From TrEMBL:
<dbReference type="InterPro" id="IPR019197">
    <property type="entry name" value="Biotin-prot_ligase_N"/>
</dbReference>
<dbReference type="InterPro" id="IPR004408">
    <property type="entry name" value="Biotin_CoA_COase_ligase"/>
</dbReference>
<dbReference type="InterPro" id="IPR004143">
    <property type="entry name" value="BPL_LPL_catalytic"/>
</dbReference>
<dbReference type="GO" id="GO:0005737">
    <property type="term" value="C:cytoplasm"/>
</dbReference>
<dbReference type="Pfam" id="PF09825">
    <property type="entry name" value="BPL_N"/>
</dbReference>
<protein>
    <submittedName>
        <fullName>Class II aaRS and biotin synthetase</fullName>
    </submittedName>
</protein>
<dbReference type="Pfam" id="PF03099">
    <property type="entry name" value="BPL_LplA_LipB"/>
</dbReference>
<comment type="similarity">
    <text>Belongs to the biotin--protein ligase family.</text>
</comment>
<keyword id="KW-0436">Ligase</keyword>
<dbReference type="InterPro" id="IPR029062">
    <property type="entry name" value="Class_I_gatase-like"/>
</dbReference>
<dbReference type="GO" id="GO:0004077">
    <property type="term" value="F:biotin--[biotin carboxyl-carrier protein] ligase activity"/>
</dbReference>
<dbReference type="InterPro" id="IPR045864">
    <property type="entry name" value="aa-tRNA-synth_II/BPL/LPL"/>
</dbReference>
<feature type="domain" description="BPL/LPL catalytic">
    <location>
        <begin position="401"/>
        <end position="606"/>
    </location>
</feature>
Length: 687
């Protein structure tokens, strides 16, 4: 089995700057979504987690590379080097460029700034010498410039590549004598057009590509990832507005150059640049309309009034409760930003439902934006209000599944909060404890698109339009801990997803969907018929807190349903000959099916625990029976997976000795302390 690489990891640990990381995330997400998840990671991820198998690109942004050295010299750099040499890709901007060379020579002779010394990665066998242009000051725009770059178009295969363009620059170097290293796999992609303040040797190389084993590294001196729209014209110096204006004029050339660079590293570029989404209104409804006024009454203690308007001021977000008669009269509505990027003819109402947030396509602090919430007290939202989610279809299917003979479902999904574009359904519930304390068990939050979705550990689950995204609130009494430990909730959710998919309707029961310990959903890759290769299509994240004798749980689920990227989707499975006669999945119906399955299995669980019946269902659907793994945290011991313990949900692994014969020793591993790289058969200890 081979994992499809879908993560672009942006280093955000020691040495990086917040602004450089933000610019990286902004630009790379615009160019690579929805094919990749662009994720910030710290040095602990690089050092301790099995990131290499799923990483398509490792990015080191601007900052100070001595911080990178202090955190990653030795083991960290060995892992990075091995990753690249085995076919990975490295992209270093400015400080990340210095870091990827054999030697850093920064401001030699300047006692305040000088940094000189060898570097371990040595993707470029020469030195990076800077500053290429004088005037650099840490944490300042004083030395910033719009530098002109001459592009070596012959280094790129196809695509629209500019001859020249101006790029943001602040402290970067020149790759000394890069032109002399052609025989070692070094190509100059762009050169500084003007005279330099240091000796750059042959080539005046500003951007280079280095072939490294089976992979490659692309290093830059300037910052082609910085977009003019995210620069403040009021920053240092009277000439800064002219700098921003110059960058604005060349922005399309900058983007085309960066696209060509990413393609050279082997990445799939989005056909259309993804714009920064605007957050939408949130719609609160219920299976029974009368329950919404009752819920609002129960919120009286958390609602504050200001200038005649009602707000819930949570710990992380502020919610504005809109009045029914005022929501169409607001003059601040966006008219031109759809999901995921272009309003099609007839979609004007979709644009009307978004707030004027992020519409100027720049870096946005979503947490600072007031979220508008509309309670629907007499009827469900119509298609004009929520064109990407049919509430009537959802509630009709919820009622149908609740009425099945073996169903015990009656609470999950009864209250529904929906947003077309949201930050994160899990975050907006879990991080606003004041609101969370006032919602009933089974309260469900769903969305069409997330802009800040969260995954387990350092992971982020990509949530483009077409994913089923939901978070369910559950209050699990502490008194049930002996018979029904809370750790099993993630396993129940996984069962509910697989069972929900396979009981969606007649004919779906044989769909090749499996669960991976502890909380991922995989499907057989439909692009490789005849091969039993699995790719990730979903994930589960359970956040828990404790209050008043119970666990407050927010169970988040993301599942690729109709979208083909970034891996595959349920509807892609239906394109194979064995299932081509089945109707495509509908998100609203699948949401109702999973919720009712989840509630039914949960109610059995709190009565009987993780009993034999639930255990059989779990093992029937998981990927790991008798899989042999390496326990890296235990000195590389080989072990065979035997199941999970029924008391605390620990993974059982039978130690193997000579010729893989059992030694008699059994390991029990916690899901929150270990990271399972399924495709490489590694269990690593998480820190």
């Amino acid at each position: 089995m081979a994992s499809r690489k879908m993560n672009v990891l942006v280093y955000s640990g020691n040495g990086s700057t917040i602004e450089s990381v933000r610019h990286c995330l902004y630009t790379l997400r615009r160019l690579l979504s929805p094919n990749y998840a662009v994720i910030p990671v710290t040095e602990m991820v690089i050092l301790k987690e099995p990131w290499t198998a799923s990483c398509a690109l490792l990015v080191f942004p601007g900052g100070a590379d001595m911080g990178y050295c202090r955190s990653l010299n030795g083991e960290g750099n060995q892992r990075i080097d091995q990753y690249v040499r085995r076919g990975g890709a490295y992209l270093g901007f400015c400080a990340g460029g210095y870091y990827g060379t054999a030697r850093c020579e920064f401001e030699i002779g300047n006692r305040m700034l000088e940094v000189v010394g060898p570097r371990e990665l040595s993707f470029f066998p020469g030195a990076c010498r800077g500053c290429a242009f004088k005037g650099f000051v840490y944490h300042s725009e004083a030395g910033a410039k719009a530098v002109e770059l001459n592009v070596n178009k012959e280094a790129f295969k196809g695509g629209i590549v500019p001859q020249t363009f101006r790029s943001y620059y602040n402290g970067g170097g020149v790759f000394v004598d890069a032109g002399k290293y052609a025989d070692k796999g070094v190509e100059i992609l762009a050169s500084y057009a003007g005279s330099l303040d240091v000796d750059g040797g042959v080539g005046a190389a500003a951007v280079i590509y280095c072939k490294v084993g089976e992979g490659g590294a692309l290093l830059t001196g300037p910052h082609p990832e910085f977009a003019a729209v995210n620069l403040d014209v009021k920053s240092d110096g009277p000439d800064y507005p002219q700098l921003v204006k110059a960058l604005e004029e060349d922005d399309s050339s900058r983007v085309n150059f960066l696209k060509a660079c990413l393609a050279k590293l082997g990445l799939i570029i989005s056909q259309e640049t993804t714009s920064v989404p605007s957050l939408s209104r949130l719609h609160l409804s219920s299976l029974h309309h009368f329950l919404i006024p009752e819920l609002l009454v129960s919120w009286e203690n958390i609602i504050t009034k200001q200038d005649g308007e009602e707000y819930i001021k949570g710990e992380n977000d502020t919610f504005h409760l809109e009045k029914q008669d005022s929501r169409w009269s607001l003059n601040s509505l966006v008219k031109n930003l759809p999901v995921p990027g272009i309003v099609k003819e007839g979609d004007e109402h979709a644009a009307d439902q978004r707030d004027d947030v992020g519409s100027d396509d720049r870096i946005v602090d979503y947490n600072a934006i007031t979220k508008r919430l509309i309670p629907h007290e007499t009827e469900w939202p119509g298609t004009k209000e929520t064109p990407y989610f049919n509430h009537h279809s959802f509630y009709a299917n919820l009622r149908k599944y609740q009425e099945e003979r073996e169903s015990e479902a009656e609470e999950f999904g009864k209250y529904l909060l929906y947003g077309e574009v949201v930050t994160s359904t899990n975050t907006m519930l879990e991080k606003n404890t004041k609101l969370l304390s006032c919602v009933p068990t089974g309260f469900t939050f769903t969305a069409t698109t997330q802009v800040a979705g969260r995954g387990r550990g350092s992971n982020v689950w990509v949530s483009p339009a077409g994913s089923l995204i939901m978070s369910v609130y559950m209050k699990h009494p502490m008194e049930l801990s002996n018979i029904a430990p809370v750790v099993f909730i993630q396993y129940l959710a996984a069962i509910a997803i697989v069972e929900g998919i396979q009981s969606y309707d007649r004919g779906y029961n044989d769909l090749p969907v499996k669960l991976k310990w502890p909380n991922d959903i995989y499907a057989q890759d439909p692009s490789k018929p005849g091969k039993k290769e699995y790719v990730k299509i979903g994930g589960i994240l359970v956040n828990s807190s404790y209050s008043a004798g119970a666990y407050d749980l927010v169970v988040g689920i993301g599942l690729n349903t109709t979208n083909a990227a970034p891996t595959t989707s349920l509807n892609a499975l239906l394109s194979t000959p064995a299932f081509s006669s089945l109707a495509p999945f509908i998100v609203e119906k699948l949401l109702a099916r999973i919720l009712t399955k989840f509630e039914t299995i949960y109610k059995r669980f709190i009565r009987t625990g993780f009993d034999q019946k639930i255990e059989e269902i779990y093992y029937k659907n998981w990927l790991h029976t008798d899989q042999i793994v390496t326990l890296e945290a235990e000195g590389g011991v080989r072990a065979r997976i035997k199941g999970i313990t029924t008391n605390w949900g620990l993974l059982k692994a039978e130690e193997l000795g000579w010729e893989d014969r059992p030694t008699g020793k059994m390991w029990e591993l916690q899901s929150d302390s270990n990271s399972f790289d399924f495709f490489r058969g590694l269990l690593k200890r998480k820190v």
